[in-house]
């Protein structure tokens, strides 16, 4: 399977928004539901422009035959006291889970973070998302905390785990 991992481009705005709506409908492990996404295509375009102009934030996408199948976002801080870290989120289309795409996206993101002098990457993950936790731990992420009952999925309260990775 030929997959290209690259930085987001402004021209990706429509596909990114459509991708996020689709992936949020396929899994219960992302924050929010498709109908809660109120961004217009123009709003998404402006967000990508801001990311492209940022020194501390970035998005990488996984493309297969010019189709977006995954993405990882890094939201960094601009305040000097917090510029060294940021938070990530990863989304993969259901049909491509278990094919190494999240691994490739994380590798690309960590390499970029090192180049930018980022020292810490944080993320939140649902306690019952065992596949994601296994991936993060494979990369050396450490459990740093727990927000008890931080997620309500419509039926159950789920703990939200906080993981962090220190980068040398």
UniProtKB/TrEMBL annotation:
Residues 3-168 form the N-acetyltransferase domain. SUPFAM superfamilies: Acyl-CoA N-acyltransferases (Nat). It comes from the Bacteria. CDD domains: NAT_SF (cd04301). Gene3D superfamilies: 3.40.630.30. PANTHER family: GNAT-FAMILY ACETYLTRANSFERASE, SPERMIDINE N(1)-ACETYLTRANSFERASE. This is GNAT family N-acetyltransferase. It comes from Fusobacterium simiae.
